[in-house]
C-alpha cells in the first residue's frame, strides 16, 4: 500500500498534475516573452562558445558549457531513453522534443539569473538556484534548503546511479567476475579529479565531453546514412504514438507525455537548476551570452543525443522483443548494425559519459556546499561522502533509488519554476539590455547599474576606471561648444 502510494505521488501527483502543467505554462510564457529565443541568435550562440575571457577569474564559456554537458550526458541520459520508450511508448520521444524546445527558453532565463546573482570566491565564480533565491528573492533560508537537497540528490544519489551503471556495464561487456578492481580504479581516478576543484574538473570535462560526443556522432551518422530509408517510418511511429495511436486513448497520451516531461527534465537539467551551477562559473561579458549557450546545451542533449538513441532503438527492430531496458537494449540495438563490436563501442561511450557525469555532479554538490559553509573540513567530508556513494553503487537496487531521485527532482523543480517566474522580470530586463546594445552595433557588456534598482548583482559592478570615464564623458558633453 505504501509503495503504491509513493508511486502515485511521483508518477501522477507531482509530475502529471503539478509539474507538467506548470512547466508547459511557464516555458510557453518565457518562449513568448523572449521572442522565441530558441529559433534566433544561432550565430551569436556559437560565437559565444569561444568567447575570450577578459581576465583569469572564473573559467571560459567553453569550459562552463562542457561542464554543464558533463552533468547532462551521463549514462542515465542514454539509457533513460529506453525506459521512456518502455513506459510511455515511442510517443514519449515526441514529448521529450517538445520539452526540449520549451526548455531552451527556460534554460535561457534561469542561466541569466544564475549569472546575474553569482558570487566571486577567490578567483572563481559560484552560482545557481540557492544563490539567486537568496539574493534575488532575499530568502537565504529557502536557498539553504535548496542547497541541501542539491547536495543530497546530485552530489550523492546521482553518483550512486552512475557508479552502478559503470560497474554493471563493465561486468556485462567484459565478463568481469568481480567488480572490486573496477571500483578501486573508479575511486582513485574520481578522487584525483575532485580534489583539484573546479579548475581540474572543468579541464577534464573540456577534453572528455567533446571526445564522447564525437564518438557518438560518428556512430549515429554512420547508422543513419546507411538506413536513411527507415527514418520516415520511425518518425511516423513516434508522432502517431505521441497522441495515443489509432485509439487516441487519453491514458496513452498522458503516459507518453509524463514520460517525455520526466525524462526530458531529468536528463537535460533544465527547470531543476542543475545546469545553472555550471553556467554561473563562466567569465562572460553579458549574462545573456551564457543563457544562449545553455539553451544550446538543451538542444544538443535532448534533441540530438536522446533523439538519435531513440532512432537507433526503434529502427533496429529489437524493441519490444523481450530484451530488458537499459544497457542491454542499447547494446542489442547497436549490435543489430555493428555486430559483435557494438558492446565495446557502447561501453566506451558510456564509460566516458558516466565518469564526466560523476565529476560534474560532484561539482554541483560542491557549489552548494560552499553556499552552506566555507569551512575546509565540510568540503573534505563531502568529498569522502561522494567516494562512499560510488562504493554504494555496487550494492543498491537502482530501480528503487530512481524512484527516490525522481521524487526529489520533481519537488525541487516545482519550487525552482516558481522562483524563475518570480524573478523573470529581472531576466527580461537583462535580455532587453543585450538586444539594445546589439541593435546599435555595440559589443554587449553588462553592468548592474544598467538596470535601475537591481540589487545583489555584486559581480557586475562597473570598474572604477569605467566609472571615471563615464563621469568625464558626462562633463565634456555638458560643456558649451
UniProtKB/TrEMBL annotation:
- Give its localization: Cell inner membrane; Cell membrane
Keywords, comma-separated and alphabetical: Cell inner membrane, Cell membrane, Membrane, Symport, Transmembrane, Transmembrane helix, Transport
The record's annotation in InterPro entries points to: Na/Ala_symport
Q: What is its main location?
A: membrane
Q: Which membrane topology term applies here?
A: Multi-pass membrane protein
The protein's superkingdom reads: Bacteria
| Membrane-traversing stretches | 14-32, 94-114, 142-161, 181-201, 213-239, 296-322, 342-365, 377-398, 404-428
**Assigned protein family:** Belongs to the alanine or glycine:cation symporter (AGCS) (TC 2.A.25) family.
Q: By what name is this protein known?
A: Alanine:cation symporter family protein
Instruction: Look up and give the organism this protein is from.
Output: Ignatzschineria rhizosphaerae
The record lists the lineage as: Bacteria, Pseudomonadati, Pseudomonadota, Gammaproteobacteria, Cardiobacteriales
